[in-house]
């Protein structure tokens, strides 16, 4: 039986409810209701960052071998990227009066940007983790590398926005602004998974104590292990 991480399952369910609620506001109710919905506006501020945080959490593996990299890459292409492209092309041809090229040059890709950016971030993160595993980089330096790359991407996105680069065809074609903006949240999830893996053998009792209580009790162990591991 697969061990479930209950608080992650809860976050996934919560963000899915936010997405359903947002689309109901956009499609099933008047525009005025959407603008007046305080809860929807609040949810929009953290819904997508939380999704990418959870995606980054599930990216991490203690031993990111070439075999694992190939297996996960194949799954991403077959189960996520290819179906997204096919459905998007069918949607453009049957429901929208735009060409596939016009859709590719649209920043939101007619609503399909999320799955495309998710695949992009997976390959960036998986490549980094495979590289770290190949050179036997310790966990604390993996965390540092992920923090540096995530922060650099986020800063590049901010600078690019100030110079209106996200409005150019190149940035819209490859969703570069979304990648830069969400990569920090994505790698934050990966870093959290690294820390969680260190802490989980010591905190235990998932249903007996709150997550915060488990974390507080495990902090000294997490700190020592991350700083002493070579």
Keywords:
single chain; 230 residues; mainly alpha; 10 helices; disordered C terminus
Account of the protein in words:
There is one protein chain. The chain is mainly α. The chain contains ten helices and no strands. The protein has helices at residues 6-27, 31-36, 38-59, 66-94, 100-104, 113-134, 139-162, 169-173, 176-203, 211-228. It is globular and about 55 Å long. Residues 205-210 and 212-230 have low confidence and may be disordered.
Task: Summarize the SSE layout with pairings.
Blueprint lengths: L5 H22 L3 H6 L1 H22 L6 H29 L5 H5 L8 H22 L4 H24 L6 H5 L2 H28 L7 H18 L2
Helix pairs in contact: 1-3, 3-6, 3-9, 4-6, 6-9, 7-9, 9-10
Total count of strands:
0
Structural class of the helix and strand makeup? mainly alpha
Structure annotation, total helices: 10
The gross shape turns out to be globular
* Assembly annotation: single chain
Largest sheet: none
Quote the beta fraction: under 5%
Low-pLDDT sequence parts: 205-210, 212-230
Helix content: over 70%
Taking the alpha carbons of the first and last residues, their distance comes to 33 Å
Q: Write down the secondary-structure element order.
A: HHHHHHHHHH
Calculate Rg over CA atoms.
Answer: 20 Å
Overall residue-averaged pLDDT value: 83
Brief rundown of the structure:
The protein is 79% helix and 0% strand. The protein is mostly helical.
């Amino acid at each position: 039986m697969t061990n479930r991480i209950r608080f992650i399952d809860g976050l996934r369910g919560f963000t899915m409810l936010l997405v359903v609620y947002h689309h109901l506001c956009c499609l099933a109710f008047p525009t005025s209701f959407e603008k007046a919905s305080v809860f929807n506006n609040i949810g929009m501020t953290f819904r997508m960052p939380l999704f990418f945080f959870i995606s980054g959490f599930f990216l991490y593996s203690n031993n990111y071998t070439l075999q694992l990299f190939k297996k996960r890459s194949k799954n991403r292409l077959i189960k996520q990227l290819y179906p997204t492209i096919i459905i998007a092309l069918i949607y453009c041809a049957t429901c929208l009066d735009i060409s596939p090229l016009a859709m590719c040059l649209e920043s939101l890709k007619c609503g399909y940007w999320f799955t495309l950016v998710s695949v992009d971030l997976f390959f960036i993160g998986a490549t980094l983790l495979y590289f770290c595993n190949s050179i036997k980089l310790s966990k604390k330096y993996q965390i540092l590398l992920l923090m540096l790359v995530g922060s650099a991407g986020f800063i590049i996105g901010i600078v690019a926005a100030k110079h209106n680069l996200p409005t150019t065809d190149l940035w819209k074609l490859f969703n570069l602004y979304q990648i830069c903006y969400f990569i920090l949240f994505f790698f934050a999830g990966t870093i959290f998974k690294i820390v969680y893996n260190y802490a989980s053998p010591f905190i235990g009792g998932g249903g007996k104590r709150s997550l915060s209580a488990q974390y507080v009790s495990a902090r000294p162990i997490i700190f020592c292990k991350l700083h002493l591991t070579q």
